[in-house]
Amino acid sequence: LRKPKKTREQTLYELRNAYERGASIRNLVATTGKSYGSIHSMLLQAGITLRGRGGPNHTSAPRQSTRA
To answer: What's the CA angle centered on 60, arms 54 and 62, to 5 degrees?
Structure first.
């Protein structure tokens, strides 16, 4: 027996809840198998205000001199 297919509304609801609980779009891509663009669009359709980019801070720390 096959599992019943989720409705689009169910999928949007689940994506919205996961994103609001802190999941990133990339996390949602990995768990759903959908593309980044699809997840992004679906979150917008669900009325989500997307968070800013996260990840590492790419600014360089000032170098410390090794001279005495």
So the answer is: 140
Helices (H) then strands (E): counts for the chain: 3, 0
- State mean pLDDT over 15-33: 96
Q: What is the pTM of this model?
A: 0.69
Please, what sign has the CA dihedral across residues 31, 36, 40, 46? negative
Q: Which residues have CB under 8 Å from 56's CB, separation 6+?
A: none
Domain ranges within the chain, ordered by starting residue: 8-45
Average the pLDDT over 24-38 and give the result.
96
Asked if 25 and 14 count as a contact pair (C-beta separation under 8 A), the reply is no
